[in-house]
């Protein structure tokens, strides 16, 4: 059985990546794409790599071609734009049986956190209540029956997959989680800004949004659900001079104990930590827990839906170090959205996502 789909925001990076994946998905007919300032242009003119792959022209976001007779609509719009569009389309879409996957940050947080970190009014609470957080490895059952999915942020995807086994095992202590995360420049979207143009990024490496990255409350909010108590993290994001990829290095001091390896409540033995992760992700096709002493690299996940996780137990300092690598546009955005659609539609979770990483 096939489903029909449309992508709004297809003239942006995440939307174009959705088009790339949906165009070759075995159970999807891509019916429509929409843009904003580029509406009216052929998509292959906006993104020449899609020439001969998709012959569609960019519609307006509210065009009937996008919404009528379509099973899944993906919103790949900037945060704020989704919140404006959803009240205008959601109830009619749900009546028609159209399900929506939103890639923005507009549905991921409770209103007070959203307003504090995004600096704009939150979406209507009824819409936010309808939304299910779409981290497929953690909440597959909720996603299967959802009508509106809020796709996670790119950093939170890597960070939460890296920390979830520790959170569930009660090993996260508040105030003892340090997150050092780096992203390639496509994470900022296709729009040109001073901080993302070639001369600023090439051969450079710097922190940004220090102490105020909007993914901080998203990480804490989900960790709280997993750990069953409040977890505060110290998160710093950095801009890498590469197009794609996120590497998050996560430093964790276990919740209790004297820190002695293998001691009660202390740092786990390395083999116990590896077993915890392997068991947690058993049967999850996109998380690759690497062997002891092997660590991930962004190049090894580029173009794929994988999240690679490496683990290190530092018995000397008493810290656990977790490394998580993803492609921000695939597992961090479009791939994860397709994975969520697969769950919602009852397809094999890997359909259309059998992507071998590009190398070198
Ligand atoms: N880039 C990533 O790695 C990544 C990862 C995870 C999540 N996300 C999220 O995905 C969303 C899209 O990100 P992106 O990187 O693809 O951004 P982008 O490259 O800047 O693309 C934004 C898209 O939204 C359209 N748009 C802009 N303002 C609009 C408005 N007011 N109404 C309707 N359409 C509007 C643009 O259309 P025109 O170009 O035609 O004007 C474009 O198609 C964001 O919410 C982002 O946070 C991105």
In short:
The protein is of the alpha/beta class and 360 residues long. The protein has 12 helices and 14 strands. Strands 3-2-1-4-5-7-6 form a 7-stranded parallel sheet, with helices on both faces. Strands 9-10-8-11-14-13-12 form a 7-stranded mixed sheet.
Explain what this protein looks like in three dimensions.
The chain has 360 residues and is of the alpha/beta class. It folds into two domains: 3-152 and 331-345, NAD(P)-binding Rossmann-like Domain (Rossmann fold, 3-Layer(aba) Sandwich), CATH 3.40.50; 155-328, Dihydrodipicolinate Reductase, domain 2, CATH 3.30.360. 31% of the residues lie in helices and 20% in strands. The chain is built from twelve helices and 14 strands. It has helices at 13-23, 43-46, 64-67, 81-96, 111-118, 125-130, 140-144, 154-168, 198-201, 215-227, 270-280, 330-345, and strands at 3-8, 28-34, 58-59, 72-75, 99-102, 131-133, 148-150, 177-183, 206-208, 234-239, 246-252, 287-289, 307-314, 319-326. The strands form two sheets. A seven-stranded parallel β-sheet has the order 3-2-1-4-5-7-6, with helices on both faces. α1 (13-23) packs across α12 (330-345) and α8 (154-168) packs parallel to α10. The protein is globular. The protein starts with a strand and ends in a 15-residue tail after the last helix.
The count of helical stretches stands at: 12
Which small compounds were modeled alongside the protein?
Answer: NADP nicotinamide-adenine-dinucleotide phosphate
Biggest β-sheet strands, sense, barrel: 7 strands, parallel
For the terminal residues, how far apart are their CA atoms?
36 Å
> Class of the largest domain in CATH?
Alpha Beta
Q: Helix proportion of residues, in percent?
A: 25-40%
- Seen as an oligomer or otherwise, the chain set is single chain
Percent in strands: 15-25%
Structural class from helices and strands?
alpha/beta
- In the CATH hierarchy, the architecture of the largest domain is 2-Layer Sandwich
Sequence of strands across the biggest β-sheet: 3-2-1-4-5-7-6
Average pLDDT metric: 95
Principal-axes shape call: globular
The total tally of domains equals 2
Q: Helix and strand succession?
A: EHEHEHEHEHHEHEHEHEHEEHEEEH
Low-confidence segments: none
**CATH level-3 fold name of the largest domain:** Dihydrodipicolinate Reductase, domain 2
Rg, rounded, reads 20 Å
């Amino acid at each position: 059985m096939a489903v029909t789909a449309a992508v709004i925001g297809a003239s942006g990076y995440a939307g174009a990546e959705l088009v790339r994946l949906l165009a070759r998905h075995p159970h999807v007919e891509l019916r429509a794409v929409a843009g904003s300032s580029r509406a009216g242009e052929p998509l292959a003119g906006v993104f020449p790599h899609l020439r001969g792959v998709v012959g569609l022209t960019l519609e307006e976001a509210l065009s009937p071609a996008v919404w009528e007779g379509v099973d899944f609509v993906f919103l790949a719009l900037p945060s704020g734009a989704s919140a404006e569009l959803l009240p205008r389309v959601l109830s009619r879409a749900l009546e028609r049986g159209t399900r929506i996957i939103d890639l923005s940050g507009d549905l991921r947080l409770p209103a007070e956190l959203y307003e504090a970190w995004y600096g704009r009014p939150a979406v209507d609470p009824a819409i936010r209540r309808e939304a299910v957080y779409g981290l497929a490895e953690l909440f597959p059952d909720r996603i299967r029956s959802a009508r509106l999915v809020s796709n996670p942020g790119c950093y939170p995807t890597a960070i939460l997959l890296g920390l979830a086994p520790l959170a569930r095992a009660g090993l996260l202590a508040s105030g003892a989680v340090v997150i050092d995360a780096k992203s390639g420049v496509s994470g900022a979207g296709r729009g040109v800004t001073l901080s993302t143009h070639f001369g600023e990024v090439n051969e450079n490496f710097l922190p940004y949004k220090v102490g105020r990255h909007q993914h901080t409350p998203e990480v804490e909010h989900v960790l709280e659900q997993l750990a069953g108590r409040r977890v505060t993290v110290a998160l710093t994001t950095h801009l890498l001079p590469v197009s794609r990829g996120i590497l998050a290095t996560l430093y964790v001091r276990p919740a209790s104990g004297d820190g002695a390896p293998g001691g009660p409540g202390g740092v786990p033995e390395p083999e116990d930590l590896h077993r915890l992760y392997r068991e947690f992700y058993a049967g999850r096709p996109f998380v690759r827990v690497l062997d002891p002493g092997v660590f991930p690299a962004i190049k090894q996940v580029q173009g794929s839906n994988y999240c690679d996780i490496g683990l290190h137990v530092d018995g000397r300092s008493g810290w656990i170090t977790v490394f998580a690598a993803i492609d921000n546009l695939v597992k961090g955005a479009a791939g994860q959205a397709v994975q969520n659609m697969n769950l919602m539609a009852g397809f094999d979770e890997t359909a259309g996502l059998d992507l071998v990483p590009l190398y070198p």
